[in-house]
Amino acid sequence: MASVLQRDYGIQPKWIDQSASTTRGNALMAAKDLKPLGIQRVALVTTAMHMPRSKQAFEAAGFTVIPAPTDYVAQRPFTPGQLAPGPGPWWCPTSRCASGSRAAGTGSWAARHPGADDHDRRQGEAMKTKPTLTLDDARRMAAAGEAEAVRNQWNVVIAVCDDGGHLILLHRLDGVAPISSYIAPEKARAAAMGKRETKVYEDMINQGRNAFLSAPLQGMLEGGVPVIVDGQVIGAVGVSGVKSSEDAQIAKAAIAALGS
Are strands 157-162 and 232-240 parallel, antiparallel or unpaired? Predict the structure, then answer.
C-alpha cells in the first residue's frame, strides 16, 4: 500500500505496520504505534464485507472508529478530503481504497502490511450477493399471471418458488383440475434448480433422450420458467392447467410484471 500512496497520490506514509498479518494484530499494532502520538480516532477503510469484524477489532483496541467501507456500488466517487469529516489524523488499513484516509492537519498517511491487505481482499471477495424474491414479488407475479389467464379464459394454477425450488406462493384459479396444484410447483422447482425453462427438458426427452427421465426432477413439462435478475436465477414460476405452451405464456407474463 505504501507504494500505491507514493505512486498514485504523491504522499509519503508515516506509519507502516510490517508485522501484523491479521485484523486483530493490525489493530493492536496500530494502538501501540499511534496512541502514544495522541491518535485516538481512526478512519477505517476496508471491504464492506470485512468492515464489521475490522471495526470491532479496532474499537477493542481503544480507537474511536469512523467506518469507510469499500467494494460496493456508490452513487458517486469521493476524494480523500471528503472522507475525513473533521480534524485527523486517520488510519487507513487497506490499499483497496487508496483514495481513502488522508491525515487531516498532518499530511501523513498510515499503511498496513501487504500480507494483511491480501488476507482482507480474499475475505471480502469470498462471498457474492444477488437479489432475492419476496412474498410481495410473488404476489405481483401471480396477479399478472392471473390477468393473462383470465384474459384468455384459462383456468390454471400458478406457483412461485425461490432459487432452491422452495415454494413461496401457490395461486389457484377456480375451476382448475386439482392435479395442477401438484404439477405447477414441480414445474417451478425444475426451472429454478435447472436454471432453464422446463421446455428444454421436455424437448430433450421427446427427442429420444429417455435416460433423462431418471433425473431427480418431476416437473419436466413446458410451463416452468426461471426468474432471472442481473444474470442470476433467483426463482421460477410454474403454471399448469392448459396446454403446455399456454402455461409457459402465463408464466412469462407473470415474470414480466417484475420489470414494470
Answer: antiparallel
Nearest to 169 by CA among 157, 181, 160, 156: 160
Angle (nearest 5°) at CA 13 between 87 and 7: 115
SS3 240: strand
Q: Are 221 and 195 in contact (CB under 8 A)?
A: no
CATH classification code of 135-259: 3.30.450.150
pLDDT score at 34: 83
Q: Exposure pattern of 194-224 as b/e (b: 16+ CB <10 Å)?
A: bebbbbebbebbeeeeeeeeeeebebbbbbb
pTM: 0.54
Domain locations along the chain: 2-125, 135-259
Q: Residue by residue, what is the 3-state secondary structure of 27-87?
A: HHHHHHHHHHHCCCEEEEEEECCCHHHHHHHHHHCCCEEEEEEECCCCCCCCCHHHHCCCC
Write the pLDDT tens digit of every residue in 133-175. 999 999 999 999 999 999 999 999 999 999 999 999 999 999 9
Q: Which three cell numbers stand for residue 104?
A: 487531516
